Amino acid sequence: MATNRQAASTHSRWRAPILFAVLAVLFVLEGTVRNSMFSGSWNTSLAILNMGLISAITALGVNMQWGYAGLFNVGVVGFLAMGALAPVLISLPPVEGAWEAGGTRLMLALAVGLGTLAMAKLAWTRTRSGILTVAVLIGGFIVYRWLFDPAVTAIEANNPARHGNIGGLGLPVLLSWVVGGVFAAAAAWAIGKVALGLRSDYLAIATLGIGEIIVAVMKNEDWLARGVKNITAIPRPVAQEVELQRNPEFVEFAASWGFPAAEASGIWVKLSYMSLFLVALLVIILLAELALKSPWGRMMRAIRDNETAAEAMGKDVTRRHLQVFILGSAVIGVAGAMMVTLDGLLAPTSYNPLRYTFLIWVMVIVGGSGNNWGAVLGAVTIWFLWIKAEVWGPALIAMLTGPMADGPVKAHLLDSAPHMRFIAMGAVLLLVLRFAPRGLLPEQ
Amino acid sequence: MDILNALVVFLNFVFIPAAAYGAQLALGALGVTLIYGILRFSNFAHGDTMAFGTGVVILLTWGLQSLGISAGPLPTALIALPFGIALTALLVLGTDRAVYKFYRKQKAAPIILVMASVGVMFVMNGLTRILIGVDEYRFDDGARFIMDVRTFREMTGLPEGLALRSTQALTVVVALIVMVALFWFLNRTKSGKAMRAYSDNEDLALLSGIDPERVVRLTWIIAAGLATIAGTLYGLDKSFKAFNYFQILLPIFAAAIVGGLGNPLGAIAGGFLVAFSEVAVTYPWVRVVGYLFPGYEPSGLMQLLGTEYKFAVSFVILIVVLLFRPTGLFRGKSV
Amino acid sequence: MSDAGFGNRGNRDASVVNLKGMGQIDGTRRSGPVGAGRAGDPFLIGENMTGGYGKGADILHDCTIAVEQGQIAVIVGPNGAGKSTAMKAIFGMLNLRQGSVRLNGQDITALNPQDRVKAGMGFVPQVNNIFPSMTVEENLEMGAYIRRDDIKATMEQVYELFPAVAAKRRQAAGELSGGQRQQVAVGRALMTQPQVLMLDEPTAGVSPIVMDELFDRIIAIARGGLPVLMVEQNARQAMMIADKAYVLVQGANAHTGTGHELMQNDEVRRTFLGG
Q1: Most-buried pick from A211, A384, A421, B2 (CB within 10 A)?
Q2: Nearest-Cα residue of chain B relative to residue A197
Q3: C53 and C184 belong to one structural domain
Q4: Ordered per-residue pLDDT tens for chain B, 335 residues
Q5: Which of B201, B210, B319 to mutate to test the interface with C (most CBs of C within 10 A)?
Q6: Residue-number span of the structural domain to which C159 is assigned
């Protein structure tokens, strides 16, 4: 351990600035050069960057859990989805008639559901009677379903073509980012309380499960967010492209820079999002760094490096782990809310663990476990590669298969070229693990 | 009260599907548990190994079918299976050589192997996509049913029918044969005992003259075999879609952990427990209840949870078991 | 366990990592060629050994340990003197920068531990020296892993030597008492039919009565013609049964002689035997 720390400090302090500069150059190339490698469109470049920044916030959340405390969370997709619910429930306008149809009954049902779990826990800790606990659970479940089923049917019957969901509160969408964090934190508290409290923790499998479950809930509970019918038209915190194009002042401004209004409006909107995301990212990274350097952060790392010693010194390891797990998940939740805001769309079927859990892990490991700037660097870099590999893969295959005679094999290879990016991501992760396991920017 | 019809409905919709599914999960969980016990990490690439192996089997099956070769009433995939296993084993051994061996030599902490398995998962996922694509395929041929609903009704005169698809019977039979063979291998042969010894105490196995690399190779070959068989049976029973094999990782892990990670017997028990609970909890019991209590007419479907939530079931079982028996039902390696 | 970049992260999560039974010896290392021994060598000798674990500092400094046919040699010394390290060096578990190990007229310095077992060396580590989830009988079978002939006779001999564990042959070795586990451990090593038996503190952590019994068995094994090399904490008892004793201090030979000679040596008595 000590030797590694020393090795880290001998890394040039220019390493981070240089790597970030290289990354910036890539985005500039993407925005300006048009060839088989780059699109030459600022709109594409900024779109990649914006999603990259959201990935960076997600990676920061994972890095807090993994880098600070060594917790292995494989349910990132679930916490992102938890956060994604917030814009829908907070910032969408209320659905007419939904609340009257069964809102109160629904709330009551959810309260009964949670109350049942609490009662069961109480029954078990107080009496240690399995029969009583199971009886509480069964009784509670029956009451819950009796309340819940009619309420859901009523809500989903309310204008099903357009709504059929409970609707939102009509509050500002930026507020929903914070609420997204709270949602994810709540889920993390529940799962962490159980999985971290076991004799040896089973966090990985527990998060894998909860991730699947949250996504399943989002897909199937139509009353919540219309399920697979998707929610569109989530309020935007920035201007609409069409509005800008109608604004003569903006058109003139764009012309003065030599951009057609349509292209300029897209760039303007993306720059606005970028500014918002950058502010959020910087605030989170500042808080994360402050936390890491505080006594709390030092204790976290002490526990991570030597749990036994920390425990012997009277530190409550489980409690600390739960704290950092909740905090990290909250950050992931914020990113989930931001993602839905950027897309203006909640599409539960797109929540794929490979993309939203394991790709984030590639980002964190490539960036450098325990280094917040590394997480940001890794996230934006990997996201750029992930998007561009879809273009570069076919280009590469086309080049390689150029001399081949046309036939089914060549056609198959060309067809499957976009899948190359999975292999590329795996290869990047394996290479980093092998040759630079501490990542691009090792922990200080 | 019509116990006979209730029983037929129960067998048809709960017992038979759950037994087949349980056998598939058990085979998958055996692979996970063996790798956990001997190579000491949870292999996130196991689902994709299953998908890859099944993909190979499907391609070979198509090849055999185009040559006009079939296995009569049995699915052609059974002939392709040994070759599929061999190819998958080669891939997995190659992966071990290229990726995992390095960390074994370093005596690296197992968490690095877990991370590496995530990288391998990406690569295998891509390979499977390139090999066979992301679409859904059915590749069962041969006889569809051992017993179909109409024959059963005519035989018994009962209003309820019972169907036993040949793939379901095949799944259970093949799984049983594989399990017995595996247990015989682990408990009765020298190589199998060497694998258990290595799992128990790596250094002492080495000091007894057991070649660790041979144990590792054997483990990968067996795991590849189990994964390919489990994947092929799952695909024959339901259908092949690469993404489903990724998703099945959760119930497989749940089964392995519920049974006690590292314990093969536990993996089997866990597989059946998870499968039966999933099916039982997501099955609408209204018809069974209707036969048992003719006077009672329930308003709903008597379904505890929608089928979409079957993953939740494996998860809840997992949590409950871990709360009360932290090392799993059968004592696993973990403390 | 090295931390190749991740520190201690993730190692408490039992759903992904399994640390139980994990080893420290690199099992992937290939053996080098076997050379010729030297005329007049003892049966087993580790000569002028210098080296340490991995890339760490040297623990052994020009250390020489040998055992003759049919004799008992013991290594004693204060804590941290490198006694166990010397054993491990002879068994090929650490990198020797200098020196050689020769067995029965062959230079085996380049062999990996697996192949040293095949060359006729039996080793009983100090801790983790049984397969806890396997039965006593399976433990013994694993000891005979490299043998291709019938092992029944050897197994009977081991059971005769240790009747206490014979009664528990179907029981998991991990469920036995400390002394019985040590007997299983020694039995496992004997099953190889080694030409030399190496014991690393066989009496660590067992009660005095069990310790005496174990010493009796070890003497019996040596009188049967099998040379024994062992590390021992209880220097006095060890020297009483030793044909040859090595006192190590800071990884180097401090005193060497027959057990009897060293018992008479004032300095050895004062420093190690408590007067």
Answers
A1: A211
A2: B323
A3: no
A4: 788 888 999 999 999 999 999 999 999 999 999 999 999 999 999 999 999 999 999 999 999 999 998 888 889 999 999 999 999 999 999 999 999 999 999 889 999 999 999 999 999 999 999 999 888 999 988 878 888 888 888 888 888 888 899 999 999 999 999 999 999 999 999 999 999 999 999 999 999 999 999 999 999 999 999 999 999 999 999 999 988 998 899 999 999 999 888 889 999 999 999 999 999 999 988 888 888 888 777 777 778 888 888 888 888 888 888 777 777 787 655 33
A5: B201
A6: 123-193
CB contact under 8 A, C146 and B209: yes
Sheet holding C72-76, edge to edge: C121-124, C196-200, C228-231, C72-76, C244-249, C252-257
ipTM above 0.85, yes or no: yes
Four-residue CA torsion sign, C114, C116, C119, C120? negative
**Same domain, yes or no: C37 and C116:** yes
Tell me whether residue B333 is in a domain: no
Range of the domain at B218: 3-324
The domain that contains C113 carries what CATH number? 3.40.50.300
Do C109 and C142 lie in one domain? The reply is no
CB contacts < 8 A (A, B) = 121
The pLDDT value recorded for residue A199 is 61
The Cα–Cα gap between A14 and A441 comes to 11
Q: What is the predicted pLDDT for the residue at A6? A: 41
Q: Indicate whether C223 belongs to any domain.
A: no
Helix%, strand%, coil% for chain B, nearest 5: 75, 5, 25
Q: Are C113 and C235 in a shared domain?
A: yes
User: How many structural domains comprise chain C?
Assistant: 2
In this structure, the answer to whether residues C90 and C102 fall within a common structural domain is yes
Contact present, A187 and A195 (Cβ < 8 Å): no
Is the per-residue pLDDT at A8 higher than 70? no
**What CATH code is carried by the domain that includes residue B218?**
1.10.3470
Whether A44 and A376 have beta carbons less than 8 Å apart is answered as no
Backbone angles phi, psi at B142, to 5 degrees: 80, -165
Q: Is residue B191 part of a domain?
A: yes
Within a 10 A sphere around the Cβ of B206, how many other Cβ atoms? 24
Kindly identify which residue of chain C lies nearest to residue A305, measuring between CA atoms: C8
CB-CB under 8 Å, B261 with C18: yes
Q: Which residues of C touch A206 (CB under 8 A)?
A: 15
Q: C101 and C200: one domain? A: yes
- Identify whether C145 is part of a domain: yes
Interface test with C, best of B111, B114, B199 (most C CBs within 10 A): B111
Give per-residue pLDDT as tens, C198-243: 999 988 888 888 888 888 889 999 988 899 999 998 888 888 889 9
* Domain total in chain B: 1
Neighbours of chain A (3+ CB pairs under 8 A): B, C
pLDDT per residue as tens digits for the range A266-314 = 999 999 999 999 999 999 999 999 998 999 988 888 888 888 888 888 8
Residue C9 has pLDDT above 60, yes or no: yes
CB contact under 8 A, B212 and C27: yes
Q: Which two tokens stand for residue B187?
A: 């408990």
Asked if A150 reaches chain B (Cβ–Cβ under 8 Å), the answer is no
Residue B28, domain member (yes or no): yes
**Quick one: average pLDDT of C33-59?**
89
Q: Is residue C219 part of a domain?
A: no
Is the residue at B24 inside a domain? yes
Candidates C114, C121, C148: best to mutate against B (most CBs of B within 10 A) is C114
Q: Are residues C238 and C201 in the same domain?
A: yes
Residues C111 and C200 in one domain: yes
DSSP secondary structure letters along B131-152? HH-SS-B----S-SEEE-HHHH
B154 CB burial (10 A radius; 0-12, 13-18, 19+):
exposed
Q: Pick left, alpha or beta for residue C210 (phi over 0 → left; psi -120 to 50 → alpha; otherwise beta).
A: alpha
Collect all residues with Cβ–Cβ distance below 8 Å to B39 and sequence separation of at least 6.
B100, B113, B216, B219
B37/C18 touch (CB, cutoff 8 Å), yes or no = yes
